[in-house]
């Protein structure tokens, strides 16, 4: 989810896309034998369950038709996700998405585990980011920019402003800032934060 008001973010996204495309295509042109470089970016869909019903959602029909009591069916267990996470390439990037990943109670633990071997990013609608969860996920931020741990949170839709304020307060405290600065209030502003928060316009 790129922030349309953030030219730096757009530039980074452009070059990231170009670099990943080159990384994907090079083995094809050089070897043509079904070879590929090891994965560097993983997308893990933790659940299809969600606490919203957005009109444009790819799962909207399924969310509407499937009884809530049946929606968990087929999800990987905690132990299965742990095994998957333990197999990812070290230093890669993992994007956790859904549905709404925070509906899984084990999600913060899985995020922490993933952050011990990879850079992580998760996409959320923000509704479940209460103070405790924000404090927990921000504590998983890397010690230096781009290091192992939670590097990005992507959000959109309802309530993101409220969630963002919580995140900003908490991140400011954890990074040793004693007061809420203007920079922390802006989704794209601020030089000292360690978890980047991007939003998509509604
Ligand atoms: S928040 Fe995301 S997963 Fe949930 S209904 Fe909306 S688009 Fe779908």
Question: What does this entry look like structurally?
Answer:
By secondary structure, this protein is an alpha/beta fold. The chain has one domain (39-200): TIM Barrel (Alpha-Beta Barrel), CATH 3.20.20.70. Helices cover 37% and strands 13% of the residues. The protein has seven helices and five strands. The protein has helices at 7-30, 60-65, 78-86, 107-115, 131-138, 160-174, 182-185; strands spanning 41-45, 93-97, 119-124, 149-155, 196-199. Strands 1-2-3-4-5 form a five-stranded parallel beta sheet. Helix 4 (107-115) links the parallel strand 2 (93-97) and strand 3 (119-124). The protein is globular, with a radius of gyration of 18 Å. The termini are close together. Residues 176-193 have low confidence and may be disordered. It binds iron/sulfur cluster (SF4). The site of iron/sulfur cluster has 11 residues, from loops.
């Amino acid at each position: 989810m790129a922030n349309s008001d953030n030219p730096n973010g757009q530039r980074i996204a452009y070059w990231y896309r170009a670099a990943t495309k080159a990384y994907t295509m090079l083995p094809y042109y050089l070897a043509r034998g079904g070879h590929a470089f090891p994965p560097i970016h993983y997308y893990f869909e933790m659940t299809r369950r969600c606490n919203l019903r957005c009109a444009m959602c790819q799962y909207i029909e399924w969310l509407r038709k499937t009884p809530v009591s049946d929606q968990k069916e087929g999800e990987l267990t905690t132990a299965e996700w742990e095994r998957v996470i333990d197999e990812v390439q070290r230093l890669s990037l993992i994007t956790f998405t859904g549905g709404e990943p925070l509906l899984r109670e084990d999600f913060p633990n899985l995020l922490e585990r993933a952050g011990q071997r990879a850079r992580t990013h998760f996409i959320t609608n923000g509704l479940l980011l209460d103070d405790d969860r924000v404090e927990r996920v921000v504590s998983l931020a890397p010690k230096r920019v781009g290091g192992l741990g939670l590097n990005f949170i992507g959000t959109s839709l309802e309530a993101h402003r409220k969630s963002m304020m919580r995140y900003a307060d908490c991140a400011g405290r954890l990074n040793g800032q004693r007061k809420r600065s203007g920079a922390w209030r802006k989704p794209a502003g601020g030089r000292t934060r360690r978890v980047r928060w991007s939003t998509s316009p509604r």
